[in-house]
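Researcher: Next entry in the queue.
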Amino acid sequence: MKRDFGLAAAAGTELVLATSGDEKHPPENIVDGNTETFWITTGMFPQEFILRFPELIKISCVKIHCYNVRRLSIEKSTEKDPVDFEPLAKSELERSEEQLQLEEFSLDGTRATHLRFVIKSGFDHFVSVHKVTIEGTEEPT
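Model: Structure for this entry, 141 residues:
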């Protein structure tokens, strides 16, 4: 059964690390399912965040809604802890004036317990991540 693992409350996905934080725009906003809330970075690059899934999943697609992100990479881990990450995808995003960027990665069944998103550069000193959606299926244990 295909599930949306990008929403923490719905699927047990946890944000386990973010390299910066702001009280008004905390990193937990990335997984609340709402594009009106967001995590804002503190102005230096790279910035990153790590999502942990409740179990090993087979990922078909990752979507990220963000603003002012220029270069982004995604890495995966299949370990119990967020270690031993391997490159998965990368993208140079196009600047979008006054609207969110939407970048979609088709991953064709990649298996992971964690995903690390690394924002390598932005179009401004500050970037924001509004929503991450991961579509996939649980792997039998």
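Model: The helical segments are 8-11.
Researcher: Noted, moving on.
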